[in-house]
Design goal:
Radius of gyration: 19 Å
Strand order of the largest sheet: 1-2-5-4-3-6
Largest sheet: 6 strands, antiparallel, barrel
Distance between the termini: 43 Å
Number of strands: 12
Number of helices: 3
Mean pLDDT: 88
Helix content: under 10%
Length: 174
């Protein structure tokens, strides 16, 4: 069993007095990840501590998810976990369809043009609306970023194994 963990959300705050927590999702599958009965790992990046939790109830509220964790019935029991990350193990990741990728597979990939010019590395994934946007930290000019809409006209090929993404720069992207 692999010990790789992937973040699916962050415990942003407590909610009410009965031990509910507000979670900021960082997954494309929040309904799946935060389903009742699912077991997740609460992890503190600083101390390395982790606590296994099970979801007792869930509801969506203003882009956040309000979770009730089994066995936590009071605000004082969950307060100390504010800022901790909710993670799943590599084994719990589902199989994706062709052309779908996990964030961790894309971040760090080099973006190159169809002519082979290296643009820079993908550092972040944004979800502003209709499609995701991959943020490339450009090699030149340094400090600048390129925003690549994840659409077929722009993203030509994704080679996860070699951490390489071939792109077509539409007019106005640079």
């Amino acid at each position: 069993m692999s010990n790789k963990w992937y973040t699916v959300g962050k415990l942003a705050n407590t909610h009410g007095l009965r031990g509910e927590v507000k979670v900021l999702p960082s997954t494309d599958f929040p309904e799946e990840r935060f389903a009742v009965g699912n077991k997740l790992s609460l992890q503190d990046e600083q101390s390395g501590r982790q606590v296994e939790v099970e979801i007792a109830s869930v509801r969506e509220q203003k882009g956040m998810f309000v979770l009730k964790l089994k066995g936590f019935n009071d605000i004082n029991e969950v307060e100390k976990y504010k800022g901790w990350l909710l993670k799943i193990s590599e084994a719990e990741q589902g199989e994706l369809d062709e052309g779908e990728y996990y964030y961790h597979q894309i971040i760090g990939c080099k973006a190159v043009t169809e002519d082979g010019e290296e643009l820079g590395a993908i550092s972040e994934i944004l979800s502003p609306g209709a499609n995701h946007v991959w943020v490339v930290d450009l090699n030149k000019p340094k400090g600048k970023q390129l925003l690549l809409p994840v659409i077929d006209e722009v993203i030509l090929d994704v080679d996860v194994a070699n951490k390489l993404v071939k792109v077509h720069l539409l007019e106005g992207l640079m």
